[in-house]
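Chapter review: from sequence to fold.
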Amino acid sequence: MSHAPEEFSIPDEARESREVEPSPKEMVVDLVRHGESKYTGTPPDLTARGQAQIESYAEGLVKDIDPEHDTVVLWHSPMARTEGSADIIQQELGRGGGVVAKRQSIPTMRMMDIKNPEQMEDVWNMMVTRGMTEGEILEHEVFQGTPNETVETMPEMERRSRRLLNGLRYAFEHVDPGERRLRIIGVSHFEILNPLLSKVFHLSPKEGLEKGEGARLTFGKQQKGDSKTSQTTVSIQFRGQTAGPFIIDPTTRELMPAEKE
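The token string follows.
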């Protein structure tokens, strides 16, 4: 069996048995964009509105998570605004009787890499002055072309979003939470979550993922034809849209429609 990528490590109390291969039935993953930020670089790095956005989102999670039957893992990017958002989620879960089994900063979930901050600031300010939305800005050639010396491009971000999805698949296949259900909550950024929605799952969010807005992935198992072996499936829910289930190709990380049962 291959080793799990270090950044996608799993809580000790939910690790697979060394003697019995785990056979989880379902894993639920809630991915949310951080709240509105002050961009100070110091946690919580959220405006009052940003805090309210995440509190509202977390209230929904509290109602949905069953502390008696769910093992909760909290992931976030290394940025202050996602760390601050994760703080609020953890606090709200605690008020509802929930416990976070493990919390971890995940480098793959980070914002896009800025290679030349001064040049990037000039480009960004020019686009904002033109009244362009976030989605329109990220469609600009500086973000859409080949790798450059200014910024990580959206094709590169799409590959990173596929890496995240593959890491989640690996976690599902190699964690045995016993009789409990594994719930992963991940706090990330527009430029990593939007490609996951639009490029990987082919959903069409008109304005992209809003701050404090989330999407839900559900991982499951499906038997392969008449064989006794099974394969992992994933489906997504976002703004009332549901897509899947799909099979994740472990080599290409592309999604393929799962066979109808």
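Two observations follow directly from the output. The mean pLDDT is 86. The first strand starts at residue 26 and ends at 33.
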